[in-house]
Amino acid sequence: MLSKDKYSACAEFSPEALKKVIRGAHPEDSVVSIGTHAIGGGVLGVIAGPCAVENEKQIIAIAKTVKAAGASFLRGGAFKLRTNPYSFQGIGSKGIKLLAAAKKETGLPLVSEITEIRQFEYFDGIDIIQVGARNMQNFSLLKELGKCGKPVLLKRGLASTVTELLMAAEYIMDGGNVNVILCERGLRTFETFSRSTLDIAAVPWLKQRTHLPVIVDPSHAAGDASLIPAVAKAAVAAGADGLMIEVHNDPEHALCDGEQSLTPDAFSALMIALKKYAELEGKRL
Asked: Which residue among 3, 26, 77, 92 is least packed, with the fewest CB closer than 10 Å?
């Protein structure tokens, strides 16, 4: 149990408010497993794929590429929250169907983001439901995810503390869903060279205080494909249980976040390097 000075002075964020996410409630590390694939428990789970599903040819080609390179999960956005209302918003439920086709081809479990409660009807075939940074404190959505029976990947908000991230996870777990994965994806700061400022210290901080798996999204943190390999290695060295990496077979023409997407060749090279880093940390890829 943490001392109160490790949290906000606000009573809402006292250690007593965290009942299920803390190590005191579950001393051993939790593992989220989908079939033979896992995140946590000594396994470095790699989630890879495009920011957005664009068409069948694209998602199946990328799925085959990331599987061959050693990824354990396929990511792909069907519903996209975008700051610019004129940006590509995803292809909706059709994207979910195309992800299912990619899973049929490769066997890779699926990770995709839900952006609002009414989308639940489309997510039966998704193995891990992602909550994006903008929705981290969408408490109505978190409560529903607590009852959904599927693992949830919860991203830290753009301006949220790690304690607020844990409180958001508590909402999900309080509903009965114990399969929660925390994701550090960087914060909005005064720095502009990267898309976000990765809080690498949050990884060991969280690992000390919660039993939940902790992964890092170097793509959204860096916003620049050339930075992703170094950031990914740093995340593994910091103790992350997994990574979420954007991969696109034609980044220059990607409909979403091409500048932060690795090519298939770059991803394959990174996976070779990550295997060595994982071994140094006592993990297997």
From this structure: 3
